[in-house]
Amino acid sequence: MFAKLRVPCVEVVENMSYFEVDGVKHLTFGKGSGEEVCERFGVPHLVQLPIRPSLSANGDRGCPEVVSDPAGDVAQLFSDLGIHVVRESAVLKNAQRAAVQYDAYNKVIVVQPPVSQFSNNEVDGKVCHI
Q1: Do 71 and 39 form a contact (C-beta atoms < 8 A)?
Q2: How far is CA 25 from the centre of its chain?
Q3: Could you give the CA distance from residue 20 to residue 5 in angstroms, rounded to a whole number?
Q4: What confidence tens digit (pLDDT) does each residue in 6-45 have?
Q5: Cβ distance 17 to 29 under 8 Å?
């Protein structure tokens, strides 16, 4: 859906990705689906959140785990998630975009690709008219 609507996606979050028993990580839904989504759609980051009863319980109490245990591994995962989202959002915000205008006189939509995409801001020697 995001690809069809051209909505940028900067992170894939696998919720309930795994749980740990005696220090052994068990993958709830198997391995590789998050990586596959990242690769298929060109999403730069993946974060995998664990199944942990305290996550739900703390949220239900109104005190998320990142507040009750700010130095814990879940807080670090959420911090990393936030850092990636902010960083990639800044990249998207500063990215050059095509300029689109409607020329009422000629009754055409004029699209000017970013300068970095095509030399001299031209395509086949002229501005694109659609």
Answers
A1: no
A2: 25
A3: 37
A4: 778 889 999 899 999 998 999 988 888 889 988 988 888 8
A5: yes
Residue 92 CA, distance from chain mean position: 10
β-pair type (12-21, 46-50): parallel
Position with higher pLDDT, 45 vs 94: 45
Q: Report the Cα 43 to chain-centroid distance in Å.
A: 6
Strand order in the sheet with 99-103: 99-103, 108-112, 128-129
Q: Provide the token pair at 97.
A: 């975009």
Please work out, in degrees rounded to the nearest 5, the angle formed at the alpha carbon of residue 15 by the alpha carbons of 9 and 20.
Answer: 140
Whether 111 contacts 86, CB under 8 Å: no
Residue 123's DSSP bridge partners are 126
Condensed to tens digits (0 to 9), the pLDDT of residues 52-80 reads: 888 888 889 999 888 989 999 889 999 99
**Residue-wise DSSP of 69-103:** STTSHHHHHHHHHHHHHHHHHHHHHHS---EEEEE
